[in-house]
Structure formats: structure tokens, C-alpha cells
Specification:
Layout: E1 6-10, H1 14-26, E2 37-42, H2 44-56, E3 64-68, H3 84-90, E4 92-96, E5 99-105, E6 110-115, E7 118-123, E8 129-135, E9 138-152, H4 160-163, E10 175-185, E11 192-195, E12 200-205, E13 212-216, E14 219-221, E15 224-231, E16 237-241, H5 247-253
Parallel strand pairs: 1-2, 2-3, 3-16
Antiparallel strand pairs: 4-16, 5-6, 5-15, 7-9, 7-13, 8-9, 8-12, 9-10, 10-11, 12-15, 13-14
């Protein structure tokens, strides 16, 4: 079998740079614009950066096979130099559909950003955020008071969402998690599970007094007044995993970890 034309994306950390030197000696590589797949060296944060790069390039996003040179490596495969061609040929593909965030600011700007894991709204100061929440233009929470709220995809449901007591969503479940962050009112609301066709709108009340930022994965928009969140089915991403270390199984097993 002819190996796929691979581009190499490398985190700036010393560990990733050293691993990249080994791979360059062992395998042929091509520039990104000549590749039909990408091998990413780094941690989960760098994988998110690489996936965002795929969303921003012209044409369809390339499949990405990650090798973990970071800390957790939830979105990565185990680092090994040997047998890369065979691993890529046998890899299992998982499709991930990102969110699209459209944020309006107090200055009148409109910013649109994709998010692979989650979109989160967070208070900027000691003042509690006060948020109005709508789903499909229907008012569901007139006032959510707390540190904020987030909407997470299945791929991102084990990250920030899970750390604030949100549910883990199976990959391929066509669901979104809407999870409050340190809610004060309504005190008993612990979040909602929504179909991924849902459109979520969050209006910031008293935005001048109680400033709120919106974060799409790693990119922040400050002083927002309104944020609209929806799945973007036009930009599907492909992650490649070793069959014995597949993403859907890892997400399932997270529910049983102490």
C-alpha cells in the first residue's frame, strides 16, 4: 500500500521538536498544501490548534492523526516512532462537527468563530454574570446568575464541561450539553442536553456593569452582549485513531473513572 502524503505539524515544546526530528529522519513528508493528511505532534491544546488550522484552510479539512507529546493526550494517539505507516493505514476515522459562535460586543462588533470543544461565557469581573438563555428563539431561562454558561460538543464534553459537572455525551450522539458554571440562580438548574440542531442564544443582562467574555475553545471575545451558538454542519473534521485507542471508547470509559 502506498503511504499517504503526510504533512507534519509540530508543537513548539522541546519534547515535540525532538520527536519531529526523529520522524523527519524516518519518513518522507510534504508541505501542507501538498498533503492529504496531517500528523500532529503535541498535546490536546496543540491538536485543537491544528484542527482550527484545518477549518481555516481552503478546501476540505484534512484528516489528522495525533501523537501525544503533551500531558493528557485525550485527542491523541500514543507516541511511537516505529510503524507509523501501518498505524495510519489501520486507523479508525471519527467525524467531529464544530460549533459556530457569533458574538456581538458592546462596541457594536460582530465576531464569528468555530469551536471544536465548547463555547463558554464567563464573567470578567467580581460581578456575577446575569444571562438570558433562549433555545430555538424560545426563552428558557429569563435570568441565569453565576459565573457563566457553556455549550459543549460530544468531543468536548469530557473537557471543561465535565469539570463543571456537565454530562459526558457519546460521540455520534447528535447532542449538545448546555451547562451552567457555578450557578447562583436558578440554584437547582444543572444544565440541559439538547439535540445538535438546536440554536442557543445567550443575551447578557447589564453588560456594562457585569461584563462577560465569550470563548470559542482558545479564542476569546470580550465584552459581549449577545452570543448565538449552533452546529456548523458544513465544516466536518476527521480525527484518526489507533483502533485499540479510539475516541468513542475513551469518551465512554471516562464515565467510569474515579
Amino acid at each position: 500500500m502506498t503511504p499517504r502524503a503526510r504533512a507534519l505539524a509540530v508543537s513548539p515544546t522541546p519534547q515535540a521538536q525532538a520527536a519531529a526530528a526523529e520522524l523527519r529522519e524516518s519518513y518522507p513528508w510534504v508541505p501542507l498544501d501538498e498533503a492529504d493528511m496531517v500528523v500532529a505532534l503535541g498535546g490536546d491544546g496543540f491538536m485543537l490548534q491544528t484542527l482550527h488550522q484545518m477549518l481555516e484552510r481552503r478546501g476540505d479539512p484534512l484528516p489528522v492523526f495525533g501523537l501525544n507529546l503533551g500531558t493528557v493526550g485525550f485527542l491523541m494517539n500514543e507516541w511511537r516512532r516505529e510503524g507509523l505507516d501501518d498505524r495510519i493505514a489501520a486507523a479508525k476515522a471519527f467525524r467531529v462537527t464544530p460549533l459556530s459562535m457569533t458574538a456581538r460586543t458592546t462596541a457594536g462588533e460582530t465576531v464569528q468563530l468555530p469551536a471544536i470543544n465548547e463555547v463558554s461565557l464567563l464573567r470578567e469581573t467580581r460581578q456575577t454574570a446575569k444571562l438570558e438563555v433562549l433555545v430555538n428563539d424560545r426563552l428558557v431561562i429569563p435570568e441565569l446568575a453565576g459565573d457563566g454558561v457553556l455549550a459543549a460538543t460530544p468531543a468536548g464534553s469530557t473537557a471543561y464541561n465535565y469539570s463543571v459537572q456537565g454530562p459526558i455525551l457519546p460521540l455520534g450522539s447528535a447532542l449538545l450539553a448546555l451547562t451552567p458554571i457555578s450557578p447562583f440562580r436558578p440554584r437547582r438548574w444543572r444544565g440541559a442536553i439538547l439535540p445538535d440542531r438546536a440554536r442557543i442564544t445567550i443575551n447578557v443582562r447589564e453588560a456594562g456593569k457585569r461584563p462577560v467574555s465569550a470563548v470559542a475553545d482558545q479564542r476569546e471575545v470580550r465584552d459581549v452582549t449577545r452570543v448565538e451558538i449552533a452546529i456548523d454542519k458544513t465544516r466536518e473534521l476527521t480525527l484518526l485513531f489507533d483502533p485499540e485507542h479510539a475516541l468513542d471508547d475513551r469518551i465512554t470509559m471516562e464515565q467510569f473513572l474515579a
